[in-house]
Structures are given as structure tokens and as C-alpha cells.
Amino acid sequence: MYRMAVMAFSIGDTKLNKDRCIKLALVHDMAECVVGDIAPADNISKNEKHRREEEAMKHLTGLLSEDVQKEIYELWEEYEYQSSPEAKLVKELDQFEMILQAYEYEDLEKKPGRLQEFFDSTKGRFHHPEVVQLVKSLNEERNSQMSAAGSSSEGSLPQAIQS
Predict the structure, then answer these.
(1) What pLDDT is stored for residue 52 in this prediction?
(2) Which of 18, 41, 49, 68 is the most exposed place for a label (fewest CB within 10 A)?
(3) Where does 28-155 have alpha helices with state H?
(4) Predicted pLDDT at 121
């Protein structure tokens, strides 16, 4: 959440409310501290995931003053329902942060390309020009490392992400 907030802070798009983007980045995953990071592999339906996270958010925000409670819960809903351009940007930053983290794990383990499924899962999900550029830069660095490691088969590299 912190890295996403910093990324949101650095976005230059003047059509977006940067402060709102930062707030969305900070609250978007709050429920995970109660319910955990529910992934598709957990075989929990989207409705059930949403129900659990909504319950967690109501509990967490219920511990706060009424005005803060309302603001945080509404920000979380805005992100959940992707109801604003800011929420859509933050969703793209969340996806980018996921593949950035996968890249960092690959680099740490010295196994370029090992976490390709994370990159594949974001294919076609990036639309904001600044995020597309971040993804392009990451792909170039990753493909360079994969090439240097000789991890391509028959001389071709998989395309990490299509924007």
C-alpha cells in the first residue's frame, strides 16, 4: 500500500485528483489485515470475497470516528466498484505493483521468468499512459535479464505483458 501511495503521488496526470489516488492506494487493501489476501487459487467466489472484505471494513472503520469512518469506507467502496478514474488508476498501480514484486522475487532468486503467470494475469489490463510506460520499462528490464540468463527456449522470449 505504501509503494502504491508513492506511485500515486508521482503520477503527473493533472486530470486526476492525486490526493484521492493516494488515499485510495492507502485503503484499498485494508480488509486484508483481517481476511488475508484472498487469491483466485483459494477458490472463493468474488461475491464471498467481497462479503468478507466488506465485513472486515465495517469492523475496522467502526473503530474510528464517524467522519473518518465514512471517508475510509467510501474510498474502499470506490476502489472496489472502480467507480472513478482515480480508482481505475489505482487498480492499475496495484496490478503493476504485483508484477514489480514478482520481478523482484525472480531477481532475488536469480530465476528470471519463473513467475510468468503473474505477468500473464495482467495482460491487457494497463491503459493509463504513465502506467503503460512503467510496465514497458519493467518488461524491457525483465526481458533483458531473461535473455542474459538464457531462459528463453528456441531463441524466443515470451512477451511479459501486452499493454
Answers:
(1) 94
(2) 41
(3) 32-35, 46-61, 66-80, 85-109, 116-120, 129-149
(4) 93
Dist CA 42 CA 38 (whole Å): 6
Residue 32 scores a pLDDT above 80: yes
Contact 122, 99 (CB under 8 A): yes
Is pLDDT of 144 > 60?
A: yes
Residue bearing cell 505504501: 2
8 A C-beta contact, residue 3 and residue 97? yes
Length of the chain: 163
Residue 132 corresponds to which cell in the numbers above? Answer: 503503460
Contact 33, 12 (CB under 8 A): no
Q: What is the pLDDT of residues 83-138, one digit of tens each?
A: 999 999 999 999 999 999 999 999 999 999 999 999 999 999 999 999 999 999 99
Longest dimension (CA), the chain: 61
Helix axes 66-80, 18-27, angle to 10 degrees: 90
What span, in angstroms and rounded, lies between the C-alpha atoms of 60 and 73?
Answer: 9
pTM for this one? 0.87
Whether 151 shows a pLDDT value over 80: the answer reads: no
